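haha ok so turns out i had the wrong file open the whole time. this is the CORRECT one, sorry everyone. sequence first:
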Amino acid sequence: MTAAHRTLPFGTRVEVVNEATGRSVIVRINDRGPFGRGAVIDLSRASAAAIGITGSARVRLVTLDG
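then structure:
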């Protein structure tokens, strides 16, 4: 599972928790972005689906590396 983030180094693993459901997924940062206004992270379709997100949602990020 992958995601895009503006500042985290490529390869960083991040746990993304859907605040509404408590479901979480671990993703690897492999791209820059997001380009949506106010967005902090851009999840791949598969990782968003894994935690029940379609469109945008409030999430909590926990870095697992370094």
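The chain is about 10% helix and 40% strand.
again sry for the mixup
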